[in-house]
Amino acid sequence: MDELNQLVTSLKGVGAKRGEVLNSLGIRTIYDLLTYYPFRYDDIQEKSLDEISDQEKVVLKGVVLAEPVVNFYGFKKSRLIFRMMTEQAVINVTFFNQHFLKSKINASEEIAVYGKWDGRRKALTGMKILATQEEEIDFSPIYHVTKSIRQKTLVDLIKVTWDEYGELMPENLPDWLIEKYRLMPKNRAAYAMHFPDSIEENRLARRRLAFEEFFLFQLKMLQLKQQETSKDLGKSILYDVKALKGFIQTLPFELTGAQKRVVNEICADLRSPEHMHRLLQGDVGSGKTIVAAVALFAVVSEGMQGALMVPTEILAEQHLESLQGVFEGTSVKIALLTSSTKTAERRQLLADLASGELDVLVGTHSLIQDEVIFKDLSLVIIDEQHRFGVNQRKMLREKGNQADVLFMTATPIPRTLAITAYGEMDVSVIDELPAGRIPIETRWILPKQVDSVLTWLNKQLKQGQQAYVICPLIEESELLDVKNATEIYEHLKEFYEPHFSVGLLHGKMKPQEKEAIMTQFKDNKMQILVSTTVIEVGVNVPNATTMMIMDADRFGLAQLHQLRGRVGRGSLASYCILVASPKSDQGKERMKIMTETTDGFVLSQKDLEMRGPGDFFGSKQSGLPEFKVGDIVADEAILETARVEAAQLIASSEWAAQPENEKLVKALNERAEESKYFD
Ligand code: ADP
Ligand code: MG
């Protein structure tokens, strides 16, 4: 292993400069180089035109009809075009900036082109020309590279390095696991990632390496959990059961079965001397706030304090209002702290918090500031927890006195994912909506139909109901978001005023402005609210029964679902209108799925299948671990097996001392940190 830990610059032919290029790819040592696996393989299988969907990458074979034509334009830019006859049709093939391919493309010859299919233009944008001999068209590993190093250079370097050092690649898994699952030995698997003899061999190699990653990851997580529970004893909160029951009686409705179940789970955690570390998952509108209120009440009934942290001011306001509602008539004292809290008010509030005068504090990131000191913070609740970084969550927890922690999320993470990402937490799920909800009716329309929908909406508004209009999210620029929203706002104003009032809400507004607009909307002084996605989480205006989402295909399914959850919160029939003209088949499919189900779990599963976990939560803030080989969605079954094995192993107290697990312990100490999971 020591030899594999040498820097790549110790290899022949790798100087300081090349070493730097490799470093930029994350390759520091020889081991890193040997395990720098391809990020994908072009599974180069020929397809026929009717099997391909729009924007799909494929290999098409055909006969070149005439010599290609090359045009030069701009600075060093070129376009090469030729016509190719496939078995079904004649299509255009275009290569950009690869005019040198001209010599390889000869009239009347057969050719195989790898490229991206444009379904509307019925044309292929070429990426690569392949040899047409059957055996050569199969399987080509693709590595992430930079401008400074070519695929071929990297592959050659891996090959010579492998020949010299490959045998030293250590086995990380114990024999008993390898035998049990008939896994490929580590060094053979690593080799077959780069230079597979067959697709099947490569598949088995991936399976083996994914298993190893998942297994080490789960084992490490479980180990951390064990350490945490043993050093942080938590405390037993023996709340007043009678008072709590009495409080639940005063609620304006009966808790759903699912709410009762999770309340019991949480209350058991509070009573238990162990530390609570629980994730409460519940679809939008499932009633998580009440559950939080019950937990807070329990803690306060024992003279302790609670905190509820949420990602936005609007949401904080909203939570404060709901909690004030349910705590009315009780002795629970509650306050709000955000960055807009006025200085004098803030001073008083902090004093009351430190003296224990105040029982519950609701707020945004402001809660984790140094000056915020609790007398006896025993329950920390974090809503929309994936919006906060690990450190922010930790800072709030550390303000507590061995505080119990409850995370809440409306993002319906599939079970396996939740366990993977938050393996160290217990999970409670509210899988039932309050009775009497009428399912939201979802329609997908084209942009040209918008005005007829506005006419239809007129009737809804006349009956006293309200509507949201959500504007597309333009990722590159918040300014464009605002511009877009403003245009839509102007159009609606023209359409509806003076009969109905239209308001605009966007992320560039000051908190006070946003608040003023929200208040008007809540009080039905404004009937239509045009908004960017700032309203995404948590707002509750039961009288708003229609939501129209512009350019809906720009949103992920999970996000559309969150947005849609803003309507259908009362007893009236509700509607969600998706305005979109998606170009790809996948885009159309996504709109269709939205009209077919309102089940957040089904949608999130679909979203994962169609977009991959990175995109699932939008951007990289998901907090989901990334693996080198394993894919938590596609390799779900492997993940589950690895989890079960890890849990079984760690349940025995002597596992680490057993000689058969020696390699594993070593790998866990040396290798499990090599990835970014535990940052
Ligand atoms: P979310 O889980 O999205 O945070 P909320 O807590 O905001 O959901 O609840 C959504 C709405 O449902 C609120 O208006 C709340 O008062 C109502 N609600 C919650 N629980 C019940 C219940 N058991 N029966 C009827 N209505 C309920
Ligand atoms: Mg909520």
UniProtKB/TrEMBL annotation:
Q: What Pfam families does UniProt report for this protein, alphabetically?
A: DEAD, Helicase_C, RecG_dom3_C, RecG_wedge
Annotated Helicase ATP-binding domain residues? 269-430
Look up the EC number in the record and give it: 5.6.2.4
Annotated ranges, domain Helicase C-terminal:
449-609
Q: Which reaction does it catalyse?
A: Couples ATP hydrolysis with the unwinding of duplex DNA by translocating in the 3'-5' direction; ATP + H2O = ADP + phosphate + H(+)
EC main class here is isomerase
The task this protein performs is described as: Plays a critical role in recombination and DNA repair. Helps process Holliday junction intermediates to mature products by catalyzing branch migration. Has replication fork regression activity, unwinds stalled or blocked replication forks to make a HJ that can be resolved. Has a DNA unwinding activity characteristic of a DNA helicase with 3'-5' polarity.
| Similarity field | Belongs to the helicase family. RecG subfamily.
NCBIfam families documented for this protein? PRK10917.1-3, PRK10917.2-2, recG
The protein's name is: ATP-dependent DNA helicase RecG
Species this chain originates from: Candidatus Vagococcus giribetii
